[in-house]
Amino acid sequence: MHARSSTTMCGLRAATSQRAHVWMGGRVFACLMAGMGTAHAQQWYTGSLVSPSGVMSRPGALNVEPYYSYSQPLGTFDTQGAAGPARHPMQRMFANSTLWKYGITKDFSIQMHTVINYGWKNGTDHSHGPKFGDFPVDLIYCFVRPDPARYIPAFNLFAGMIFPTGDYSHLGHAQDGIGTGAYVFRVALTEQSTYTLPGNHALRLRMWNWFRRAVSSAALQDVTSYGTTQGFRGRGRPGMSGEAGFSLEYGITRKWVLATDVAYDWANRSYIHGRNAGGQVVNRVGSASGDWQVAPAVEYNWNARWGVIAGSSFYYAGHNKSSQVSPQLAINAIF
Q: Which domains, from first to last, does the chain contain?
């Protein structure tokens, strides 16, 4: 998800042309690039759907950005990456994911992110109401400020922890499993630069790379998000995972922006061990997976503090994953 910006030193949205986000964002005063060459000083951004946003360069500023999305399976990718039909009953999900980012100093921010999901499969089980997911908290440091005269982009470093607040064990049924039960460390590096194209149209480029690794395992009992069944007792651990990608945002007018993201997600094998209801030893390693997604969107900004973005992610290639479409809408605000 993303973040927005306009332009200020290391900021995510000021009144010029930048914003940086890291899974959600907002037009904040992040490590933005005033522009490579001549920046389009009046361009406003909400931020693309997937790219992460950097620090808020104005101490005391708060960025809030709620996302709303729906996931619809279209098919599957097997171990070799070959496309096949969707598995039935199909897994569907509504989600609300809200980014909360606060500027501590010009180069240092804290970011939190709340997730609420509701999932179901037609003709089978539903979540027992909306479920609160795991809770990521990140510290963001802008370690290179943009220097347009020297063609230096802004660079941000993210480091944080995903806290296991989502249900994962002793579930009523599998749809209630939204968490991993493990503490997961995550780190990311992001880059952002802005260019002025003919006709005085701004083009903003972002690149990022996420890495996540569990630092603890989870105690598992009965039905869990790891695929165990009633009577199981043991432990589980999610595999390492990450995401890399880039985004482009093209300013049509000061308020209207076309955006697109291209990203690759990957996950190593999860692991569980324990005993099932019959007392047999279970040692199971999951399958590694990966997918490619493209996420076109349209942004509209009322001013440098308020904007909206609407678009969809399309998962068009991968292995051991489902192919799906995920329409999304987000409102971004800075206070």
A: 62-334 (2.40.128.130)
